[in-house]
Amino acid sequence: TQTAPLAFTQHLTVNPKSAAERDAVLANPGFGDHFTDHTAVVDYKVGADGQGGWGNARVEPYGPIAMDPAAAVLHYGQEIFEGLKAYRHADGSVWSFRPEANAARFNTSARRLALPELPEETFIESLRQLVAADQDWVPSGDGEALYLRPFMIATEAFLGVRPAREVSYRVIASPAGNYFGGELQPVSIWLSTAYARAGEGGTGEAKCGGNYAASLAAQMEAEAQGCKQVLFLDPFNDNAIEELGGMNIFFVFKDGRLVTPALNGHILHGITRSSVMQLAADRGLKVQERKITIDEWREGVASGEITEAFACGTAAVITPIGELKTAEGTIASPGSGAGEVTMAIREQLLGIQTGVVEDLHGWLTRL
Ligand code: PLP
Ligand code: COI
Predict the structure, then answer these.
(1) What mean pLDDT is reported for the chain?
(2) PTM N6-(pyridoxal phosphate)lysine: at which residues (predicted)?
(3) What is the CA(263)–ligand 1 centre distance, in A?
(4) Judging by DSSP bridges, how do beta strands 166-176 and 145-154 pair with one another?
(5) Which residues pair with 173 in a beta bridge?
(6) N or C: which end of the chain has fewer CB within 10 A?
(7) Over the Cα atoms of the chain, what is R_g?
(8) Which residue out of 247, 264, 350 has the highest number of ligand 1 atoms within 8 Å of its CB and is therefore the one to mutate?
């Protein structure tokens, strides 16, 4: 059932960054280094009657958050987040891609981390309100967008371990180009065998900060090996491939199959992943969500059966995987690694997002 979103008040900054500063950022946005002038905020509190409620929805100047040092998020990591992008179309309008899916996933994450659910209409309204205040920050360059980062933190000052009764929801925004920097090129991935990202009954399926903190030791190993991302396996299930630190993974087979690990409770339900599966099926590829092991990847490349591999996610869009480095040798993708199927799906997805390819699935929402 649709309910009306909370009404946001706008408290705009009197001293936003200058147009010159903003233009300098937009000329080379990078990823995650620069933030817009405002933030959207909604507060949650459990009252004396035990009922929780959201209120005080507002857009305010971007800046540091004052928080009690005992705030639960600082000790027990009660936090969740989302990531999606706002795209500038040729006529100047700004659109988001399947934001209702992010809103739903946010609430799935909230339930797992014992945080309150945020009404989906208010989630989408918060994006709209922030983009309205900061619309000059939406880039229009090739492959660029305004990355939106909604998140929820437990702000109650209390050191007992229980779900916080005071919580804050916020959205920040950051102009974004290629996540991996520079022009798009195939990336090298490191296979983590020392660390797993998630396990049975854990939080792998939730988008919570702790999963990313837990991935960093493996990510450091990857970087020491000259790689950009780390691949995690399920060591209790024949070394089945799960996902990368911040992206899902796909394999293109010579015979027209597109294979991605099945959602098993440990893997993030990627919205790019589900969109890629739909676009691939539309083009006549045979999409399989199933168990795929590291041995199958190695043998499939050796026999010529697997012709392409790619990573996908909001930040990564679709990025070809050039090679997987492992302690026991490298699995190199054939050719340069930027395969034909990978690049065709990438172009179609980006085309829909940026308004140059027809949105046949109704995935865009105007902000
Ligand atoms: N897997 C992980 C661990 C992620 O952090 C992300 C990024 O959000 C994804 C997969 C891809 O999800 P989505 O396509 O919804 O951005
Ligand atoms: C995203 O793609 O939105 C993520 O959260 C992944 C992270 C690598 C930035």
Answers:
(1) 94
(2) 207
(3) 13
(4) antiparallel
(5) 148
(6) N
(7) 21
(8) 247
